[in-house]
Write a structure and sequence with these properties.
Radius of gyration: 42 Å
Structural class: alpha+beta
CATH architecture of the largest domain: 3-Layer(aba) Sandwich
Low-confidence stretches: 1-25
Shape: elongated
Number of domains: 3
Oligomer: single chain
């Protein structure tokens, strides 16, 4: 009885407040979005023209589909949705959505997203592709890092990769004063499709280790201004190189002597001064070899002279002090004559064993005429460097006409300057000092340490067996080497540290 009363009261309350049981939704009754086609393509179109395409949104579900928005998520520089507002679709209904394309480049990819309450596909995509019959400027490389901080250049290509004529109206360069634009073309510059033009950006260090610059191009490319960036960053790496002072480091010395009539007295003076020459070398090493070449065939006079050659001073004097030889083609072409001699250093030939790839090769030319080998000096020096473990092991010195006794020493002078040798005047009679200087140059080079990369000179530090040397050494920029010019005990550890400038 009581339970019947409770039920009656509950029913009366529901009736009074209009409370009814919640209707149950049948399982699987949802909206279902379908879009066709899922891909739209446009063009090609000329710059400034536009085209429209459509896709259809359908509801194949059993409940109303609520579309919240239609929007471009990729490619909005070229594509635009003309029907962006949300809408509702009854089951089985459909609706068209329009998309407009206006070229912004040769090829533009885009995507439309249709956002709805479809539980399975809340964001339905439509992929877009637009082809523009427009100019397109490509600058390559569009970024460049100079590999070091020495003077350098990079070539940039301006190319029209579009489908119509490109007109570059302005080309400027902004950035650090060490970077500049070379060979800029006159404006306006017109490039048909596929055509290109090169310009150069130069870096002139002027002591700088960092720089930044940007090439800026304005044209009828619909994408607007195009740029390319160049950057310089000094490596700043601290390099440490260690060497052991060798006992009897090797040196090979070749004398090439002009034996024309005007040179008779000079060649005899050299022979008489040999003791001064060899004394300098003997102070550093016994492992020396000397060859004297005067004849076109290239064979050394009296063979290869060493510290073991009996009475070697007299042997050298005899080799240099002979009379005038019958005129030869190479007597005033001493680089070619030296090359002939070096060609005969292989096993079985007359100068066998003279060139050792890890020894200093010091070529000393003595003449009162310009070099007349018929090839540039660097042709010969390059051939000799190719024989060596390190090209910096080649040094050329010249005793040549710097005064009034002969002609300008063209060819010899350049080879000497490029390899860090001595340039002495054959016109004076001070042969004792000359021989001593040439010997010292050979000896000093045996305490020359070739660096692996170009240093910031002010950062170089030299120590021997852990003791820092504030003096007693010099830096040779020509050979990129540190030369120690004080006595260093055999077996000592030489350590050279410096900051690389990246060259």
């Amino acid at each position: 009885m009581r339970s019947s009363l409770i039920i009656a009261l509950f029913a009366a309350a529901c009736s009074e407040y209009d409370v009814r049981p919640k209707e149950q939704v049948e399982p699987g009754v949802d909206p279902d979005i379908v879009i066709e086609p899922g891909f739209l393509t446009f063009g090609p179109l000329p710059s400034g023209e536009s085209a429209e395409g459509t896709f259809v949104v359908s509801n194949e579900g059993e409940a109303v589909l609520e579309v919240d928005a239609v929007s471009i998520t990729v490619g909005d520089e070229a594509f635009d949705v003309l029907d962006p507002d949300g809408f509702s679709l009854e089951p089985g209904a459909s609706r068209e959505v329009r998309v407009r394309f206006m070229p912004a480049g040769e090829v533009t990819f885009g995507q439309v997203i249709v956002a709805s309450d479809d539980p399975d596909t809340p964001e339905a995509p439509v992929d877009l592709e637009g082809l523009g019959e427009v100019p397109a400027l490509q600058i390559s490389p569009d970024s460049y890092l100079f590999p070091g901080v020495c003077d350098d250049q990079v070539v940039l290509e301006l190319k029209n990769v579009g489908l119509s004529d490109l007109v570059v109206t302005d080309l400027t360069y902004d950035g650090s004063p060490e970077l500049s634009l070379l060979n800029a073309p006159a404006m306006p510059l017109t490039l048909p499709p596929g055509a290109a033009r090169e310009v150069t950006v130069a870096f002139t260090a002027q002591g700088a280790t960092t720089a930044l610059g940007t090439l800026v191009a304005h044209s009828n490319d619909p994408r607007g201004e195009r740029t390319a960036e160049q950057q310089v960053e000094g490596s700043g790496d601290r390099i440490v190189e260690a060497y052991t002072v060798l006992d009897d480091p090797p040196v090979d010395i070749l004398f090439a002597i002009d034996k024309s009539g005007s040179m008779t007295a000079e060649s005899r003076a050299l022979g008489n001064a040999f003791s001064s020459f060899i004394t300098e070398i003997d102070n550093v090493t016994d492992d020396w070899q000397i060859g004297v070449v005067v004849k076109d065939g290239g064979c050394f006079e009296n063979g290869v002279i060493t510290a073991q050659t009996p009475d070697y001073e007299q042997v050298f004097k005899n080799a240099t002090s002979g009379g005038i030889f019958a005129a030869g083609d190479l007597t005033e072409a001493l680089l070619a004559l030296s090359d002939n001699a070096l060609e005969k250093t292989v096993p079985g030939l007359c100068n066998e064993g003279f060139v050792r790839g890890d020894a200093l090769l010091h070529v000393i030319a003595i003449s009162d005429e310009p070099e007349q080998s018929g090839m540039p000096w660097d042709h010969w020096v390059g051939r000799w460097q190719s024989r060596m473990a390190d090209p910096n092991l080649v040094m050329v010195s010249g005793v040549v006409a710097l005064g009034n006794c002969g002609d300008e020493p063209t060819g010899y002078q350049e080879a000497v300057n490029a390899t860090g040798g001595l340039l002495l005047d054959v016109c004076t009679s001070n042969w004792g000092n000359y021989a001593q200087e040439l010997g010292a140059a050979s000896a000093n080079s045996l305490l020359t340490y070739l660096l692996s990369t170009e240093p910031d000179v002010g950062s170089i530090e030299v120590s021997v067996d852990g003791t820092t040397y504030d003096g007693g050494w010099t830096y040779d920029a020509t050979r990129n080497a540190v030369i120690i010019n004080v006595d260093v005990p055999v077996g000592s550890e030489v350590e050279i540290s410096y900051t690389s400038i990246g060259c």
